[in-house]
Each structure stands twice: as C-alpha cells, then as structure tokens.
C-alpha cells in the first residue's frame, strides 16, 4: 500500500534512525507537520543490541526504531519507507524527490542519514562486521570481555583502541598491518601487556560461525576470537551537495562529516543535521539527543518566521507604517 503524502510539510526528516526519529518526535509534539523518509538500511543493523543507552540497554536496533516510529506516529507524524533521489531549493523551502518519482515540499529539512563504514579490504572483515569484528569498546566491549582480542592497525587510532579494549580483556594483541605504532606507543603497549605482532594481516580466519584467528602475510595463523578494526567513516551527505553543502574531513582524520554548529544548523539556511552525519563518534543516545536539539531549533526557527509574517500582516491590516507615514 502506497503511503498517502501531503503536498507540503513543515519539516521533512531524511533518515529514520535515532537522530531523525527523535527530531521528528520533538517537531510532531510541537504540532508540526512532519514526514520522516527512511531507506531502511541502518548502520547498526548487524548488532544484536543497542548498548550504553539508559533504560534501553540491549534493545535490538530494529525494536528501538519500531518503538520510535510508533511514538512519532502517535503525535501525527508520518513515516515513509523510501529513498530520496534529490533535494532542491524551491523558493524559501525545498522540494524532496523520492526514487519512485513522488515529490513533496518542505519549509525546513532535518538530515539524519548517518554514515558509511569503509572497512579495510581484508577477507573475513566484512563478513563478520558487527558480530565479532568490531570497532567500539563502548558499543560492544562488555559482550567480548575476557576473550582473545586482536586489533588490526589501519590508522592512527589503533593503539587508542587497544588500550581501551585492554580494560576489558587481559588478552589483547595489536597487528601492525598498515599502521605500525611509533616508539612511544610501543612502550605504552608493552607497559599494558599488549602484544605487538609485525607484518600484514592477509585474512581473518573463520570456522563455522565464529572467528578463530588471523592469517599473516607469511602464512602464520595466530588464534583470536574477536577482531577490532578502525573503519573510515564517511557521512551520507551526497544529497546536499547540489545545495552547496558538502562533507569535510574530520579533524581526527577518521572520516568526513557535514559541518554544523552545536545545534545542528548548517551553513545552508533551512537545513539542519543530526547524528553520525555530523558527529562520527555519536552513539545512539548522543544521536537521539542531537536530533531532539535540532528538532527544537527547527521549531523555534519556524516560530520566528511565522511571527515575522504575522507582524507584517498585522501592520498591513492596521495601516501601520514603520516609518510613521
């Protein structure tokens, strides 16, 4: 069944994860007409549960999204499964065109499209991503505590990851791979009892439904149960390029984000962003909070615009001239 859409909305939210849905919730509760468009491909889909989220720790990602959608709908917001093909300026607002050819207008946009993890091209990494190939100790660390963990160094953050995972397991090994640590970092690893293995990793070895080790360039297989990598994280911001809003390299060197201020307001009037599209490190709780903040700011911006228009109309009806004539 095709969702019945209005011609225009106060706000169209592109992306229906934690950030987008919480932004939509704030707007719908402010009696704004809101449409959330979501492609249904969340970054955290492979994960068994969302962690570090107060009162919802361990909730499966799909369940959290379903609850959020129900809450937004409960306040009159609309949720549409679909892909956005194009976003274009239309007067003071925007036209959002879907892949199926339908189009809607919006006075404001909230973009919460998240990011893409660009994984190292090592056989076995992509197949186990989000299960026993991980990157975040706060998202998945407790679940792999006390296991044999291997960090494949692909960037400057590898030693930092190793030190964090060492808090969770006494059996941590760093594989130098393409980013061997410097002298100071080698000393840090040694001081914490973290082994350092030189050479490249050629394969993550899988047996049945689990990781059993890593194969090095010389053919040696070292046993490991969990692998940690550092993906390059790139914001899904391509839709905004036509409006003059492009991604920028993050100061950490770990990826690209859409720049915005602390409230999610971008350099393009009328567009806000929230979640991983502008904050690489935001977990679900932080993304949801950012969405709520952006939603509140959008509502306030619309209130100001409506008030200005109301004042102008009031003056016209009263025959009032600011110059006194």
UniProtKB/TrEMBL annotation:
Recorded catalytic activity of this chain's protein: [thioredoxin]-dithiol + NADP(+) = [thioredoxin]-disulfide + NADPH + H(+)
TM helices/strands, residue ranges: none
Leader peptide range in chain numbering: none
Domain FAD/NAD(P)-binding: 9-291
Oxidoreductase recorded as keyword: yes
UniProt entry keywords in alphabetical sequence: Flavoprotein, Oxidoreductase
Superkingdom per UniProt: Bacteria
InterPro entries: FAD/NAD-bd_sf, FAD/NAD-binding_dom, Ferredoxin-NADP_redctase_2
Protein's name in the database: NAD(P)/FAD-dependent oxidoreductase
Gene source species: Nocardia jiangsuensis
């Amino acid at each position: 069944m095709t969702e019945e859409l209005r011609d225009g909305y106060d706000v169209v939210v592109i992306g229906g994860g934690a950030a987008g849905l919480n932004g939509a919730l704030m707007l719908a509760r402010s009696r704004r007409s809101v449409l959330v468009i979501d492609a249904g491909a969340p970054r955290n889909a492979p994960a068994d549960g969302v962690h570090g989220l107060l009162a919802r720790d361990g909730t499966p990602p799909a369940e959290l999204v379903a609850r959020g959608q129900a809450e937004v709908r409960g306040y009159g917001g609309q949720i549409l499964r679909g892909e956005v093909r194009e976003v274009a300026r239309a007067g003071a607002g925007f036209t959002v065109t879907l892949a199926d050819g339908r189009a809607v207008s919006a006075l404001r946009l909230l973009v919460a499209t998240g990011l893409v993890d660009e994984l190292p091209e090592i056989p076995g990494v992509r197949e186990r991503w989000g299960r026993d190939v991980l990157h975040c100790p706060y998202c998945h660390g407790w679940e792999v505590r006390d296991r044999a963990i291997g960090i494949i160094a692909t960037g400057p953050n590898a030693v930092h990851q190793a030190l964090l995972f060492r808090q969770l397991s006494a059996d941590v090994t760093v594989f130098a791979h393409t980013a061997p640590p410097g002298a100071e970092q080698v000393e840090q690893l040694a001081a914490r009892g973290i082994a350092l293995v030189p050479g490249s990793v050629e394969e993550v070895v899988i047996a049945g439904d689990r990781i059993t080790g890593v194969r090095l360039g010389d053919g040696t297989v070292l046993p490991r149960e969990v692998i940690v990598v550092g993906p390059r994280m790139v914001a899904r911001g391509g839709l905004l390029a036509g409006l003059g809003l492009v991604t920028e390299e993050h100061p950490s060197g770990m990826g690209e984000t859409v720049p915005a201020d602390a409230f999610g307001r971008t350099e393009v009037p009328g567009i806000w962003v929230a979640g991983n599209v502008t904050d690489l490190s935001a977990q679900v709780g932080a993304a949801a909070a950012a969405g709520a903040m952006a939603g509140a700011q959008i509502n306030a911006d619309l209130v100001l615009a409506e008030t200005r228009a109301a004042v102008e109309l009031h003056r016209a009806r009263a025959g009032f001239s600011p110059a006194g004539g």
